[in-house]
Amino acid sequence: MKLYNALLVSIVLLINISSPAHSAVTVVSNYPTNYSKNVSSATTVGVRYSATIDKTKLIADSVKIFGSVSGFHTGTVSLSSDGKMVIFKPTNPFSSGEGVYVRFGGFVTTTTGSYAPAFSIQFSIAGSIKNSDSINFHSDDPILEGILHRKHRSAKGSDASPLYFPQLNVVNLNNPAEGNLYVANMQFEATQEGAYRMILDKKGNLLFAQAAGPSFVQDFKPGPHHTYTYFDAATYRIYFLNSSYEIFDSIEAANGYQTDGHELQYTADGGYIILAINYATVDMREISGGDSAAIVLEDVIQEFDKDKNLIFEWRSLDHFKITDAVGENLLEPVIDFCHANALEFDTDGNILMSSRHMDEITKINRETGAIIWRLGGQNNQFTFVNDTVGFSHQHDIRLTPKGTYTLFDNGNLHHSASTYSRGVEYKIDQVNKTVTQVWEFRRQPDVFGSAMGSVQRLTNGNTLIGWGACDNVTVTEVNTLNNPVFELIMGDQNYTYRAYKYTKEQIDAGITHTGKANEVSSLTCSSNPVFDQTEVTLSIPKPSLAKINLYDQLGNEVLKLYSGSLEAGSYVFPFQISGLSAGVYYIRAVGDGNATLTQKIIVIK
After folding, report:
1. Residue 541 domain flag
2. Which contacts (CB < 8 Å, 24+ apart) does range 209-212 have?
3. For the purposes of burial, counting CB atoms within 10 Å of the CB of 186, is it exposed (0-12), middle (13-18) or buried (19 or more)?
4. Which residues contact 567 (CB under 8 A, 6 or more apart)?
5. Of 260, 275, 272, 345, residue with least CA distance to 311
6. Whole-angstrom Cα distance, residue 465 to residue 181?
7. Number of domains in the chain
8. DSSP-derived pairing of the beta strands 522-525 and 206-211
9. Which residue in 140, 157, 375, 535 has the fewest CB atoms around it within 10 Å?
10. What is this structure's pTM?
């Protein structure tokens, strides 16, 4: 105990060593968050600075990490691809249940005379999980939870019997939009013998089918450079296919968390963002009168750069309460209180997250992790102007090219006479906190998709709706008058997590699954921090509409810098800070297809 106390005093002294005075460099974000609980024993530690760190002066000894049980840790230190995040990877994992104390020393930046300040955090490692056999696969449906749960999963399957290929019935065929349809069917069965990744033409003719069984797969879709991705539940990995539909790479969640197959989004700089799951042991007796060692499924957002370095991590238990859940039994031994199922980038580059079990869309600051606003659920901050129903257990929040938002409203807990699902579109006033419904599609007669589902606005204005776990219909495309122009119905209770449709031009342009081509290649400021004035430089690879605006930390627009058409090339826009208060701001450049780049600036007066 005396040795432990002496070490603790030593680490506290290290933490309180101050950095050189008058440093203009600041810490933007870090993971784990300070005072986080139930952190994975395999976690790395990252700190992001507002300036580029000099790689030649970066040494592992600049990071001191001490565990209350495991003692001091050695490891390796590296930089993210943009040079602003220092990442420390311990040689050995942390001990179960211990407290960890971290001190990042002052780092030299590439800016002459700049010096990154010392920074310290502390967090605690998760204890051992009891009753681990009761942990289920993170699915959308309680029946599927039990059926798909397998304690020991086999290797990824690649073959399924052609005898079980699903029936594909096309109805209401009336001039659908151009493009191919991408779906992966699944059944609520333990063995997915009839599961396939499929591509159909606009009339529903089968162009390609690849067996997915015997494992459960979801979210089959095209990506940049004529690639494809899907999530495989047998291995908890997201796989990448080349143009010949052959696996060439795969990814999984970092820091010991389990990969969640609900989402993969690409970033403009070649990275990606995914969801992950942490299993935390929580004493629910004082929270809900529940289990003393309940297993709580915690959703985690992880963003990686193009070199697969983890550069952003956001854990739901750091920001949400378990009691934020809507309609969940908090007395159960396993609690899925949040159930995140979609991530989307808003026009300002920040993150929108859909949490099914909270009936909530949350906007999260992509730089700091702070919550900007909460829409729906128990913590709703908005007024619904003309939608008395609202959304319930929703999926697939998406930004449309005109700046509105679509989602698939499953409607599990609708306060109405009947249970039904719908596609819905909202205009969100983020300043005045109002939500106006501008479009809705309810199939007649009503149908209900109890889980999964998607809504995609197509290039010609049509809308594609994937009905998820619905026995009546699988996919519907409606035109701008809400008339169905294509419907796909799969027999024998075959469902699909999401449905996508893309044209050849979108594929050739390098779309992500939301159809965003990268029309903004770089955004820089000539001086940052800004004391008087700076110049914003925007580069675009081809002619594009472009908007450059300045936002405060809450996401409020405070200044318009430019809006109009630009030819390919680089453009310089002078930027005066007169009239602005000192603080942190974000410059967002938005190009065609809502491709967005963000530059954080610090105004000093």
Report:
1. yes
2. 209/165, 210/245, 211/157, 211/158, 211/159, 211/160, 212/157, 212/160, 212/184, 212/186
3. buried
4. 543
5. 272
6. 11
7. 2
8. unpaired
9. 535
10. 0.82
CA-wise closest residue to 247 among 219, 274, 210: 210
Q: What is the pLDDT of residues 321-332, one digit of tens each?
A: 999 999 999 999
Q: What CATH number corresponds to the domain at position 113?
A: 2.60.40.3710
119 inside domain: yes
466 and 474 in contact (C-beta within 8 Å)?
yes
Type of residue at 247: I
| 79 lies in some domain | yes
Torsion of Cα atoms, 561 then 563 then 567 then 570, to 10°? 10
Single-letter residue type at 270: G
Tokens 């995140």 — which residue? 340
Alpha carbon of 169 to those of 98, 109, 210, 473, 493: distances in Å? 57, 61, 19, 10, 13
Strand order in the sheet with 237-241: 217-223, 227-232, 237-241, 247-251
Give the tens place of pLDDT for each residue, 77-99: 999 998 999 999 999 999 999 99
Positive or negative torsion for Cα 383, 387, 392, 396: negative
Kindly state the greatest CA–CA separation across the chain.
80
Query: What DSSP string runs through 263-281?
Result: EEEE-TTS-EEEEEEEEEE
* 290 close to 330: Cβ distance less than 8 angstroms: yes
Look at the chain and count its residues. 605
Give the C-alpha distances (Å, rounded to integers) separating 393 from 363, 371, 453: 17, 20, 11
Residue labelled with tokens 């991530």: 343
Query: Would you state the structure tokens that stand for residue 112, as one six-digit string?
Result: 């002459």
b/e map 524-536, b = 16+ CB within 10 Å:
bbeebbbeeebeb
pLDDT per residue over 204-230, tens digit each? Answer: 999 999 988 777 789 999 998 899 999
Q: Please give the single-letter amino acid code of residue 423.
A: G
Q: Which of 72, 97, 124 is the last residue of a domain?
A: 124
249 in a structural domain: no
Specify whether the CB–CB gap between 297 and 335 falls below 8 A: yes
* Token output for 274: 């995914």
Predicted confidence band of residue 542 (pLDDT cuts 50, 70, 90): low
Domain of residue 91: give its range.
2-124
How far is it, in rounded angstroms, from Cα 528 to Cα 27?
Answer: 14
Select from 74, 90, 124 the last residue of a domain.
124
The rounded distance, in Å, linking the Cα atoms of 464 and 467 is 10
Q: Tell me how far apart the alpha carbons of residues 363 and 351 are, in angstroms, rounded to a whole number.
A: 6
Cβ neighbors of 576 (< 8 A, separation 6 or more) are 532, 533
Domain at 569, CATH number = 2.60.40.2550
Tokens linked to 143: 């029946």
